[in-house]
């Protein structure tokens, strides 16, 4: 059971818009800690995809955007492309006793 | 460019030990905090351990506390993870990752190695 909750899967047709949610609690996202996102293509290591809630590293297309509100965060993808098909993980910091850095369970994005 | 290369994974029996290494290049290793993160087969990511740039601050996840030891050698640009009393549930790909600090003070993992597979089985 992950500290941050993500939907196991989302899907969309090419060109569509999809969002991936990441829900936390008052000890992590709700406490004001930033949310970061990672993309993992099949058979590869994770890669930083969004940091500080809404900042894109160099090379990440502006079709991707991030936001945070209350105890949740979202990764939005517009103009969906086949190459976007991957697993996406959110990450934050948790201030509870067994905390430190926590991840969501991951969301498999399928481009139909 | 930043490169992190893990090694040392393999098959080990329950109760056994293994030492993972991560060779860093392309950046000033001694300036950065580092972490180990693992991923069990078909599962999500789990943060394992953190070490500050000078090794004076170390944290562990609850699942490995007391069994794993993180260390680093800044002269050799290397990060290590000594894993003792291994259990079947420690089976995973272990990634070393560079820790970056955001503007708000939050930490995230901006570069990852390719990972090394640790299998704990009799």
Overview of this structure, please?
The complex is a heterodimer of chains A (112) and B (122). Chain A is an all-beta fold and 112 residues long. Chain A contains no helices and 9 strands. In chain A, strand 5 (64-69) and strand 6 (72-77) form a beta hairpin. Chain A is globular. The N and C termini of chain A lie far apart (28 Å). In chain B, strand 4 and strand 5 form a beta hairpin. Chain B is an all-beta fold. Helix content of chain B is 0%, strand content 54%. Chain B is built from no helices and 11 strands. In chain B, the strands form 2 sheets. In chain B, strands 2, 4, 5, 6, 9, 10 and 11 form a 7-stranded mixed β-sheet that branches. Classes of the chains: A mainly beta (112), B mainly beta (122). Chain A binds chain B through residues 2, 33-34, 36, 38, 44-48, 51-52, 55, 57, 89, 91-93, 98, 100-106, and chain B through 35, 44-47, 50, 59, 61-62, 95, 100, 102-104, 106-115.
């Amino acid at each position: 059971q992950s500290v941050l909750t993500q939907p196991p899967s989302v899907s969309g047709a090419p060109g569509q818009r999809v969002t991936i949610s990441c829900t936390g609690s008052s000890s992590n996202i709700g406490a004001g800690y930033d949310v970061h996102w990672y993309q993992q293509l099949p058979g590869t290591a994770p890669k930083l995809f969004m940091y500080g809630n809404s900042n894109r590293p160099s090379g990440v297309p502006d079709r991707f955007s991030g936001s945070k509100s209350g105890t949740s965060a979202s990764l939005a993808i517009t103009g969906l492309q086949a190459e976007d098909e991957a697993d996406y993980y959110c990450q934050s910091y948790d201030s509870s006793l067994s905390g430190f850095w926590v991840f969501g369970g991951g969301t498999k994005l399928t481009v139909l | 460019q930043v490169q992190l290369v893990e090694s040392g994974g393999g098959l080990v029996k329950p109760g056994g030990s293994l030492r993972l290494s991560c060779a860093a290049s392309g950046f000033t290793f001694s300036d950065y905090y580092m972490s180990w993160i693992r991923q069990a087969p078909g599962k999500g990511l789990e943060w394992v351990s953190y070490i500050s740039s000078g090794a004076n601050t170390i944290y562990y996840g609850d699942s490995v506390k007391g069994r794993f030891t993180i260390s680093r050698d800044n002269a050799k640009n290397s990060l290590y993870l000594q894993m003792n009393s291994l259990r079947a549930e420690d089976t995973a790909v272990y990634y070393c990752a560079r820790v970056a600090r955001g503007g708000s003070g939050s930490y995230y993992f901006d570069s990852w190695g390719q990972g090394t597979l640790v299998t704990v089985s009799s």
